[in-house]
Write a structure and sequence with these properties.
Blueprint (H helix, E strand, L loop, with lengths): L1 H6 L12 H13 L5 E3 L4 H4 L1 E8 L2 E8 L3 E8 L5 E3 L10 H4 L2 H13 L1
């Protein structure tokens, strides 16, 4: 489903990747209710249970990792301008946008994903 959607969007990848802070701003806006996300694919958060879930919000494509119904990390984030943040387990602390969320924002984002 996602590949059909992405193939219709003219992504031009830029050499400058998205920073964790830029991706965090979008996640924060979702948690605060400023932006509304739309799940891509047919499986809900609980049906996935352990795996990846992709959402779209205002032209941003964000993939989260669901670890036994718990929001674990942001696997990838593609901006409308084609720039991307891609998770790497060897990154330094503070380079995962999820680490920049407050406790409340993190909990709210997890709650929104589980009900989408």
């Amino acid at each position: 489903m996602l590949s059909k959607w992405i193939s219709k969007v003219p992504f031009i990848l830029s050499p400058k990747p998205l920073t964790a802070r830029e991706a965090y701003q979008v996640l924060r806006d979702i948690a605060l209710g400023i932006r509304t996300m739309c799940r891509q694919g047919s499986q809900s958060w609980t049906e996935i249970y352990c795996g990846l879930m992709t959402v779209e919000v205002d032209g941003w494509i964000i993939t989260f990792y669901n670890d036994c119904n718990t929001l674990d990390y942001c696997d990838s984030c593609y901006g409308p301008d084609g720039r991307a943040y891609i998770f790497d387990s060897f990154q330094r602390y503070g380079t995962d946008p999820m680490e920049l969320l407050s406790t409340w924002e993190y909990a709210q984002l997890g709650k929104l994903l589980s009900t989408s």
